[in-house]
């Protein structure tokens, strides 16, 4: 079992693999058991000299059952497959951009490679750290604005998976009334709304759609407050919605819990939320999830570094790559043959270029 420690400020200990007593975040006690992160016979490239993966979580941290947990899954898979070490770290409450810079720089200073910031909020920190450590590969999820030879921007066509969610919601809704809950009112989450609305209206142009953003800014808790998600879902259900799709990170747990408790359909995001233990009580009511394979992107970057051919520049994933999609884990969803058929047709039309999904509502 992975043991973690939570401490008070942002820094990675230089002399050890755990965080110093003054550091903020968490780190795995398994981190880099072998010096240099390699084992004899591990299959790790002989050119790889790093200690393993340095992973810095976004708002909400590990345990959000969504975005950050997806990143952790890719981190764990890469560590296991390539037999390398790793450190994964939580954000601090109300931390500054300088705190993020310090976290990434200390990871690079210790020898972790790649160093990955999970979320667009890390863009300034990645840019600063990449300049200081040009021999380390940095990755950032959901941002492609950092231009450097040692930075990979791992971005997704979220609107495509959301389009499939919209098709599924419209086909499954008996009330012809559905809802969307976004965590924060920012362009990234607007893509989820745009795809969802377009997909739903492709099925029923007259369908009624409730829309709600939880906060204006990330630091206000839009991605980390299940109570806010629960309240939003409650309001949409009261208004008449019987299927609700969230793009709200940890706050989405509240959306799913409220929908499940009222026996309405919920649609998850990023990870296959039907399969998550924390939501097991409500999984019967999780119609599906708009998948965004953050873990796959983390794995891809780690693999490229270990093999001595680091990815750089924009790396964009879509339905065609298999890194975006819609999950079908719920047997009740699979039993809805007309819904499944509509989603599969929509997927084919997007991949074939017959449908262009909007990125702005």
Structure notes:
- Helices cover about 35% and strands about 20% of the residues.
- The strands form 2 sheets. It has a 6-stranded parallel β-sheet with strand order 2-1-3-4-5-11, with helices on both faces. A 6-stranded mixed β-sheet has the order 7-6-8-9-10-12, sandwiched between helices.
- Helix 1 packs parallel to helix 8 and helix 4 packs parallel to helix 5.
- The N terminus is likely disordered.
Number of helices, where a helix is a run of at least 4 consecutive DSSP H or I residues: 10
Spatial ordering of strands, largest sheet? 2-1-3-4-5-11
Biggest beta sheet attributes: 6 strands, parallel
Order of helices and strands: EHEHEHEEHEHEHEHEEHEEHH
The structure class reads: alpha/beta
Strand content: 15-25%
Task: Give the helix proportion (percent range).
Answer: 25-40%
Mean pLDDT: 88
Termini Cα gap: 43 Å
Break the fold down into its secondary structure elements and pairings:
Layout: E1 52-56, H1 67-82, E2 85-89, H2 97-110, E3 115-117, H3 123-132, E4 138-141, E5 151-156, H4 158-172, E6 177-184, H5 187-203, E7 208-215, H6 226-239, E8 243-247, H7 252-261, E9 265-270, E10 286-292, H8 294-306, E11 313-317, E12 324-326, H9 331-334, H10 337-351
Helix pairs in contact: 1-8, 2-3, 4-5, 4-10, 6-7
């Amino acid at each position: 079992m992975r043991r973690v420690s939570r401490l008070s400020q942002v820094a990675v200990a230089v002399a050890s693999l755990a965080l110093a007593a003054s550091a903020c975040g968490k780190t795995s006690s398994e981190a880099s058991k072998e010096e240099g992160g390699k084992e004899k016979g591990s299959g790790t490239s002989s050119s790889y000299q790093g200690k393993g993966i340095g992973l810095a979580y976004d708002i909400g941290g590990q345990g959000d059952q969504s975005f950050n947990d997806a990143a952790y899954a890719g981190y764990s898979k890469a560590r296991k497959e390539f037999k390398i070490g790793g450190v994964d770290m939580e954000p601090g409450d109300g931390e500054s951009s300088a705190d993020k810079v310090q976290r990434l720089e200390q990871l690079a200073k210790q020898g972790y490679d790649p160093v990955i910031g999970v979320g667009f909020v890390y863009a300034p920190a990645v840019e600063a750290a990449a300049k200081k450590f040009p021999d380390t590969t940095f990755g950032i999820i959901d941002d492609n604005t950092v231009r450097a030879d040692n930075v990979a921007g791992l971005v997704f066509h979220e609107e495509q998976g959301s389009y499939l969610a919209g098709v599924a919601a419209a086909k499954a809704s008996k009330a012809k009334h559905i809802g969307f809950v976004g965590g924060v009112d920012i362009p990234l989450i607007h893509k989820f709304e745009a795809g969802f609305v377009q997909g739903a209206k492709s099925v029923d142009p007259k369908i009624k759609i409730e829309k709600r953003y939880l906060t204006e800014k990330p630091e206000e808790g839009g991605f980390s407050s299940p109570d806010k998600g629960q309240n939003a879902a409650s309001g949409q259900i009261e208004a008449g919605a019987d299927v609700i799709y969230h793009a709200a990170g940890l706050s989405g747990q509240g959306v799913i819990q409220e929908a499940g408790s009222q026996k309405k359909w919920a649609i998850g995001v990023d990870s296959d939320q039907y399969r998550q233990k924390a939501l097991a009580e409500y999984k019967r009511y999780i119609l599906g999830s708009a998948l965004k394979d953050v873990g796959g992107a983390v794995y891809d970057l780690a693999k490229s570094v270990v093999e001595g051919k680091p990815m750089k520049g924009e790396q964009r994933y879509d339905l065609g790559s298999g890194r975006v999609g819609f999950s079908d884990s719920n047997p009740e969803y699979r039993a809805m043959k007309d819904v499944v058929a509509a989603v599969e047709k929509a997927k084919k039309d997007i991949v074939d270029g017959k449908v262009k999904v909007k990125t702005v509502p």
